[in-house]
Structures are given as structure tokens and as C-alpha cells.
Amino acid sequence: MRYSELFGKTAREAPKDESSANAQLLIKAGFVEKLFSGVFEILPLGLVVVKKISNIVREEMNAIGGQEVSLTSLQPKELWDEHGRWEKLKGAMYQLRDSSGKDIGLGFTHEEPMVDLVRSRVNSYKDLPIYLYQIQNKFRDEPRPRSGLIRGREFLMKDLYSFSSSKEELDRFYELCAGAYKKVFDRLGLETVYTEAAGGVFTNDNTHEFQVLSEAGEDTIFVCDKCDFAQNKEIAKVKNGDKCPNCDGQVKEERAIEVGNIFRFGTAYAESMNLNFTDVDGKKKPIYLGSYGIGITRSLASIVEVSHDEKGIIWTESVAPAQIHLISLGANSEADKLYEKLTKEGKEVLYDDRDVSAGVKFSDADLIGIPQRWVISEKTLKENSVEVKKRNEDKVILQKLS
To answer: Which structural domain, as residue segments, surrounds residue 378?
Structure first.
């Protein structure tokens, strides 16, 4: 992509009502645009990153047997009434009435619609287990949206649902999915803490969260400095400085961003929504439900929160909008040739071909945060080279063009 043709270039200022690093940097670097409080539009560079995050998630969900579907955002009140959540979610769920007078909810989450989809197609134990997931926008009526893309009113999320014939089968997949989540976040460059937590509005049982340590986080968790003990403050019976209940380590209080969570609902939905199957002996049995979420746009924001400096974003290579940020300084014809060559080789290149100063180009490159900056100029051409610098390093090297 030629930067001169790119829609959504850098801006000098971010909205004054956005104090979080992720919102400020993503807006200034031209990845997103704020429409109103808690709602952000994704621009071309941002969409490249979102698609790469989504594809990593998709690959790991497929690897554990997930099948991708796409359910609607509009959901009838009747479904939510079956499990009793329509009234419980008033004030958090967007609930509206259409022109025919029908009450409709706007995709807060998808347990009820997914249960409805599966119960009409499962009869026998031979139909189980089933693992369905989607990557879709969710809507939450946040009274005080904050922290940029970490907590908004509309966001992109991957939600997977497991339908199992027994608790043991559910537990096996729960652990399998936990391992897949670890792989996802490792590939995204996010170091996560596997944290025991409460179920919130979803379940009375304890659940697990994948937390990224960051001062920008809204959660408080307690983490052992020696073992893998970690609990959310909501359920913790320890406090900062206590001895770890599992070893001789010390518990530390940390701020963190929740980027993923996994829930075991057991047979709660089977009981309220007639989610059953017939076993090998012809007996009616309840289906065990699990739910597993990853925030796609929240992961995007989290990467920025933990990987930036005073100059701008520092993207993980796996999700960067391009591999190379090519800058031409008065050597446009040779830069054009290099750009064409790299593109033909399959490299992802953002080529800054604008007629602006070197300072502006360098500043924008640092702000955008692509892993490698390549500079071609009359000076480098005298040595038949291009100047290469990694975004997270100060060292500059000359690399031969041929």
C-alpha cells in the first residue's frame, strides 16, 4: 500500500476525552476513528490488524474442533425469557421494540440463540459433542465507556460454545480450550495470567480469565510471585503481601486487562431451555454447556497498551499492519522499484511515497509502529543499500539491495 493513497493517515491530536494510551495512539496513528463515546470505527490499517488477530483465533479454534458460524445480532425476547435473563440484563443489554411491537435484544452475548440453534438439531448422543464459534460484534449499554477500546458499547468478540454429553466431556474440552487460548495469546505477543474469577451475570460458578498485567486494566488480581496461583479480587480471600495459599511465595496485587474468559454452565441451560439428548440406552439426558470468549478489539487495544513507547505503537510481528515501512528520501524511482520487488516477493509493505520532510516520515513511522523501517535515499544508494531499523531497537544497519 502506498501511504499517499491510504485512507486514514496520522493525526497530530487525539480526542481530549480519551486518556488511555490505546485510544490515543490508535486514533493518532490512523487505525481507528471515534464516532461517539464507547464506539470506534475501524480504518484500513486497523482492519488489517483486526483480521490478523481474528485469523490467529480462528486457526486455534479450528485446531480443537471448532466450527465457525455466524448468528444474528437481533435476538427475540422470548429466547432470553426462557433462561430468565431478559429482566436481569435490563440496563446492560440494548432492548428495543420493532414496528410490529416485537421486543428484541441486540447481541449482548449468544448463549440463548446458540442453545436454540443446537437444540433443534441434536437428538442422539451420536450428535455430540458440538463446538461452535463465531467472530461477531457484541453490544453492551455501558453507562460509562472508558479505557478506549478496552471497554466500549460495541466491540468485536470471538465466542465459542461447547455442547457435551457429560460433565467429564465438558471438563476435558474446558482444559483443551484453556490450552488453545494460551497459544492464541502467545501468538499475539500477549503474556497472560490464568486467573480464577467469578461468573458475573453468566454463571454462579467460578470461571477463569486470561489477564494481561497492565496499569490500564480495570481488574484487580492477586498473583503469586512463585507459582501459578492467581485470583480476581471479586473472589480472592488473600490480599497484597499475603503468603500464597499454594506455596511459600508472596501474593502481589496487580492491575490487569481481561482479554479472554471461559465458563462452565453445566446443565443450567438444559434445565431452563430443554437442551437434552437421548443416550445409548434411550434415556433423556441434559446437555452440558460451556462458553469461551476472546475480545478481538480488546486484544488489539491490549497489545497497544503493553507495547508502545513515547513515540508510538510497537506492533507484534504476527499482527502488524505490514512487515516493512518503506520510506523514500529523494530517491522515488529506486524506491518504487524496491516497493514493486518486495510486493512481488509477497512482503507486506507500507510505502511512504509522500512529498513531505524526512522528519514527518520518521515520526509517522514510529507512531504507526510497523516492525521494520526501510529507508532508501541518495546516500544509501551510493552503497547500493537500504537503511534498516527495527521499531523496537535503536541500531541501524545498511542492507545490500542485491
So the answer is: 322-400
